[in-house]
Amino acid sequence: MTESMRSFMDHHESGEPDFEALAACADDRVSNAERARAVEHLASCPRCRTIVAELVRSRTTAQPSASWFSGALPLAASLTVALAGGTLYWVMRDTGLRPAAPVAQPAEPLPGAPAAVPAPALEPRPSPAAPSIQALPPDRPRSGGPRVVGGKTFQLIAGEWVDTSYRLADALPVADVQTNDDLKSHPALEPFAELGPRFTVVVDGTVYRVTLQPAKP
Amino acid sequence: MIDLATRILPRSSAQDVVDAVVADVWEGRKLARYEGRSSLATWLGAVTLNAALNARRTISAHARIVGAADSVPDLPAAASVEVQDTLARVLHDAIAVLPADTRVLVLMYYEQDLTLDQAAVLLGRSKSTLSRSLMRARDAIRREADRLARERYRTTLDALRAGADLSLLELDLRAACLRTGQNPVTDV
Fold first, then answer.
1. Chain A to chain B, count of Cβ pairs less than 8 Å apart?
2. Full-model pTM
3. Do A46 and B171 touch (CB under 8 A)?
């Protein structure tokens, strides 16, 4: 353990965390041993937990645009080259042009040699469909609100919109809704569909727990 | 820096904190301690967040003096305040006996609201590993909370949760982390 990590652990005595040790954790610039010490400390220190969590959150929410850009650039370059090559091919085919390839032509056929067989014309092959590019969704927030939908107020708890009027102790009957067909069979839930695939709502004395499964490809 | 500070404080107070941090760093008092073990930007972020937490503690203390109530989230699982407190305490104590790495995972997920992807960066493990660890942690918490409920209150976790669906434990855990902490950072 480095001296800095030791001071990080002892900050309750010194009064101030070792900011660099916290930042190094968030930057993932710590050794396994240092990480283990840090985890030990974070388990019992809410302040350091908050600092590290916010640093990690700010780093990971700032990164998607950069990583998207760095990943998309080579892809865009490849697609451009492929498109240019394809266009050139079609232009040359339609105009009868052929690339000037250095093909050696025999000056005279040797007596008795079989006549040269002309190469078959190249047939254009259907190019494989370009892969569809789907942008990765940004990190979905896991808490927030309140949000008013269909005259009801919802709070986002652990990634799920929960009707604020919902109280487990009320012991209301619970109906699980897991497919779109289920959802359509409950017209009363229609106003809340905009909440997304996971929400809990109390309607007419029944708790509807909607956890729609993603459609299988 | 201002974005980080506004995660802790209202924007007007956050701006004051950032101004103070910049002045502090500019005068060299804090910068002299920077050794280059992390990126400068992340280090500045840590300094800013700590200053913002200090400011929030001051604001909270002032609010308590003038009588403003701290907002404590409701546990969706329970009705009365007494049952909410009991349930929160049981869940909190069940989390407290987890091994340190599992406890940090649970707290980062439920208390700090990190995603598994973000926790994976911090804990140096894959998202799938953390997902399995979290599942096992929930089971362990449920068992321990039930044991504590029987031992201390001669009841069960089921009963504390009004006999309702235990698959909703996740909602309780999040609320319990925030409730028992009572703004944990202000208590440090």
1. 166
2. 0.55
3. no
pLDDT tens for A105-153 read 444 444 444 444 444 444 444 444 333 333 334 445 666 778 889 889 8
B100 vs A43, A52, A58: nearest CB: A43
Contact at 8 Å (CB) between A157 and B150? no
Query: Is the peptide bond prior to A146 cis by the omega test (within 30 degrees of 0)?
Result: yes
Of B43, B108, B117, the CB nearest to A23: B43
Instruction: Report the distance separating Cα B145 and Cα B172, nearest Å.
Output: 12
- Give tens-digit pLDDT for A56-82: 888 776 654 444 444 445 555 565 666
pLDDT over 70 (residue B101): yes
**Residue B75 counted as domain residue:** no
Cα B149 → chain centroid: 23
- The reply to whether B86 and B175 lie within a common domain is yes
> Which of A59, A78, A107 is the C-terminal boundary of a domain?
A59
Residue B186 DSSP one-character state: G
DSSP single-letter state for residue B166:
G
Q: State the total domains in chain A.
A: 2
Owning domain of residue B9 = 2-65
Q: Which residues pair with A209 in a beta bridge?
A: A176, A200
Per the domain annotation, does B22 fall within a domain?
yes
**Domain presence at residue A14:** yes
Q: What residues 178-197 of chain A have any CB closer than 8 A to a CB of chain B? A: none
Q: What is the pLDDT of residue A132?
A: 34
Residue ending a domain, among B65, B89, B110, is B65
Q: With contacts defined as CB-CB under 8 Å, which chain B residues touch A139? A: 115, 117-118
B45 and A52 in contact by Cβ < 8 A? no
Contact B124 A35 (CB under 8 A): yes
Q: Do B101 and B183 reside in the same domain of the chain?
A: yes
**Residue A103 located in a structural domain:** no
